[in-house]
Design goal:
It is found in: Cell membrane. Helix content is 45%, strand content 17%. The protein is built from 26 helices and 23 strands. The strands form 4 sheets. It has an 8-stranded mixed sheet with strand order 14-13-12-11-10-9-22-23. A 7-stranded mixed sheet has the order 15-16-17-18-19-20-21. Helix 5 packs antiparallel against helix 6 (206-216) and helix 8 runs antiparallel to helix 9 (271-289).
Length: 750
């Protein structure tokens, strides 16, 4: 077990590094330690062997990472035009902004020869891209770039772990070729037929989306409301086909095979062999039906290791078998360490094994309660760390949903997929509707948002979880609460009276700024899309349970697009805005020049728009706010254009002076004029823009004007979420990409 631990540590370490050391040097060091058999006493030789194990695993993981980095860097700059021949793999995903699909590149007709083999392609015109179809396409390439925030879903980490190194958009002139006739295309077309049959029979309902997700991995047909219910109840793992589903399918087939071979023994073959092989083939077939995604590949590999050990009749303890399976998965795919699903599945299986050793001989209901208790307790640090919240209803929801999905819904859905009988599909759809209805009722119960924990509290959280599932008496287990008490009482420190903390969320091509005082919080704009993607996880991670004010600068989707979903998901005391169209149907206080208020010694001043007239377009309606504290001021101009800037300079002149300027219109050349900068005289400029955005913000002219005025610049597209503190000596800003630098994160040229 010690050697396995060192091997796993070597495989995991590179994922935490900001830069990769040369794998050649690590391999050379391992070679230098090779004569361990002839060195010193036994303990020294054992130490050398463990060091070699660690270095070899580290060298292997570093080589894989460097190879993937080299492949990603061969793409060239963003916006590179290429022409390729490729095949549509998997199931196209029709989304809110068009169709997204995986393209397997067969030939590069024009462009860099080092293109990745798999590219994630978007067609914003919403074209028809059948599974298994072949195309000659013109694409505009884009390296992987996504928002970088400390809490919630990390798209860059997910894409790296899944092997997506590039994205692309379709240009005009696509030419369809003869469809692919290989085995994968056959399976993809079969999956698409099953999906379309569910959608047709069940009239594109949420139940059809759930059946498609459980059988062929078509998660894109589930509405966002269903995903919110899964997240609120802690049952999202039941929708993603991974270790649980594939293991259950293998278990069902193994059980049926065992019953058959007991009645009809196969001649010349051990029954054990037939059962194990049949179970593993069932797992493989289910994984292929689900698209053979990276998580399903890991699950099949894990079960394959277990099958081989069973066939070899190696009597291994369960925990050692678990460690060997984990080592096999991470050796085959070192990037799996970045996938939360791997640690959730393996972690909870380890807990079940550990807790199961103490319940041998107990009644079945006691064993079930013990398993549920162990999984619930062990999931606390995992859910808090990966998802930033603890659904209080999760134990009850999982206790009901896991047997429901395991013994009823998933087997019936697979039967409906295999047998094209409308009655079966209708029955499975009805059962799915009941399950979704039940989860929706449970999702109404409260969750417990967990703020981002400082590093010293994580050992206490993990130790409490381990202590709680130890095979000891209940009295001893209660001491785990002592370790958890500081975790659940901790809250991030608030600013001192008279000071403020400003957080510019990385919402991509948009704007969202959080201003906190000692006892209040104001959010200026929300960015686009769903608030649950970026805004809500950051507010919860920063320790907020409500907003005193949501201020929407003007009616543009990149500023107020997430307002409706934020108001539905997060408590807001009052809503302000310059235009009622920003939040139709919501009571709103209109933002008008001259309004002022104070929170905890911090003054908020509305400078624009005027009560009447003065605005010719949405951008010119922008609510311009200046926030003044004891140690400096921050100016928030929204998308106010240069004409509005000139008017404000004429009205207020030197009174506009601010320590920090959030640059208007994401760095567009329509704002941030020289006259504006001379009046504001900022020491620091913050630009909120999307990474590699199609508008090419910030504009070089704006950056040139800021440099000419001696203004330091920080950008969300380069540094991710920005945390700003105004101190007596000047503004101090920290970017998330700098604080949590990893080799797989996008590095912005400075």
């Amino acid at each position: 077990m010690r050697a396995l631990f060192f091997w796993l540590t070597g495989l995991t370490l590179p994922s935490l590094l900001p830069h990769l050391p040369d794998w050649h040097l690590v391999a050379a060091l391992a070679v230098m330690l090779c004569p361990w058999r002839r060195v010193g006493p036994k303990t020294w030789r054992q130490g050398c062997l463990l060091a070699i194990t660690f270095l070899l695993a580290l060298a292997w993981s570093l080589w894989r990472a460097e190879s993937r980095l080299a492949e990603a860097q061969a793409l060239g700059p963003a916006g590179t035009a290429v022409e390729v021949v490729g095949t549509v793999r998997g199931l196209p995903d029709p989304g809110e902004f068009g169709v997204r699909f995986a393209l397997e590149v067969e030939q590069v007709l024009e462009g860099p020869a080092g293109m990745p083999r798999r590219v994630l392609v978007s067609d914003y015109r919403g074209g028809h891209w059948p599974a298994g179809s072949r195309w000659q396409l013109k694409l505009r390439m884009r390296p992987v770039a996504a928002s970088a925030n400390p809490y919630g879903f990390d798209a860059e980490r997910w894409m790296w772990s899944e092997g997506w190194l590039a994205t692309a958009t379709v240009r005009k002139g696509a030419l369809r070729l003869a469809d692919a006739a290989d085995g994968q295309s056959f399976i993809d077309r079969l999956r698409d037929r099953v999906r379309q049959r569910f959608l047709h029979v069940l009239e594109s309902s949420a139940a059809a989306g759930l059946l498609g997700a459980l059988t062929v991995g078509a998660q894109g047909d589930l509405p966002s409301s269903a995903w919110r219910d899964f997240a609120a109840t802690g049952t999202s793992h039941l929708v993603s086909i991974s270790g649980l589903h594939i293991t259950l399918a293998a278990g069902w087939v193994g059980w049926l095979t065992a019953r058959l071979v007991r009645r009809f023994p196969p001649p010349g073959v051990a029954p054990r062999t037939v059962v194990v092989v049949a179970a593993w083939i069932a797992a493989l077939m289910y994984a292929l039906l689900a698209g053979f995604s990276v998580p399903t590949q890991r699950s099949v590999l894990m079960l394959g290791v277990a099958a081989v050990l069973l066939l070899l009749r190696r009597p291994l303890p369960p925990l050692r078998l678990w460690a060997i399976a984990l080592a096999a998965v991470l050796t085959a795919d070192p990037f799996a360490v970045l996938a939360p699903g791997v640690w959730l599945s393996f972690g909870l299986v380890a807990v079940l094994i550990w807790s199961g050793q103490a319940v041998v001989g107990l009644p079945w209901w006691r064993r079930g309660l013990q398993a549920q208790w162990a999984v619930t307790v062990a999931s606390v640090p995992l859910l808090a760390g990966w998802f930033g919240q603890l659904p209080l209803v999760s134990p009850l929801a999982n206790a009901l949903a896991i047997p429901f999905a395991t013994f009823l819904l998933t087997p019936l859905a697979l039967l409906a997929a295999a047998v094209p009988a409308e009655g079966l599909t209708v029955l499975a759809g009805w059962l799915a509707e009941q399950g979704l209805w039940g989860l929706h009722q449970l999702a109404r119960l409260p969750t417990w948002p967990v703020p981002g924990l400082p590093a010293p509290l994580w050992p206490a959280l993990l130790a409490g979880a381990v202590w709680a599932v130890l095979p000891a008496g209940w009295t001893a287990r209660l001491w785990a609460a002592v370790l958890w008490l500081p975790v659940f009482l901790w809250r991030p420190p608030a600013p001192l009276p008279g000071t403020m903390q400003v957080t510019v969320l990385d919402v991509g091509q948009g704007l969202s700024v959080l201003v906190r005082t000692a006892r209040h919080a104001l959010l200026y704009d929300t960015g686009a899309g769903e608030a649950s993607r970026v805004v809500v996880p950051q507010l919860q991670g920063l320790g907020l349970s409500r907003l005193d004010t949501l201020l929407l600068s003007h009616h543009d989707s990149d500023h107020d697009g997430a307002a409706a979903s934020l108001l539905a998901a997060f408590p807001v005391r009052q809503l302000w805005g310059a235009q009622t169209a920003s939040a139709p149907g919501q009571p709103m206080t209109r933002c008008v020049a001259g309004q002022t208020w104070q929170w905890d010694g911090v003054r908020f001043e509305v400078l624009w728009p005027p009560a009447v007239g003065g605005a010719s377009d949405d951008n010119a309606h922008s609510c311009v706010v200046r926030v003044v504290g004891r140690t400096g001021a921050v100016l928030l101009p929204g998308d106010a254009p240069a004409a509005v800037e000139a008017t404000l300079v004429a009205r207020h002149g030197p009174a506009l002076a601010s320590t920090v300027l959030v640059v208007g219109h994401h760095g567009s050349r329509t704002a941030t004029s020289g006259v504006w900068l001379e009046a504001v005289r900022p020491r620091l400029a913050i630009i909120s823009a999307g990474a590699l955005n199609r508008y090419r913000h910030p504009h070089p002219d704006v950056l040139g004007r800021l440099a000419a005025h001696g203004v330091a610049v920080v950008r969300t597209d380069c540094q991710g979420m920005l945390t700003l503190t105004l101190e007596a000596g000047g503004p101090v800003v920290e970017g998330y990409r700098d604080r949590a630098a990893r080799y797989w994160r996008r590095h912005c040229p400075r």
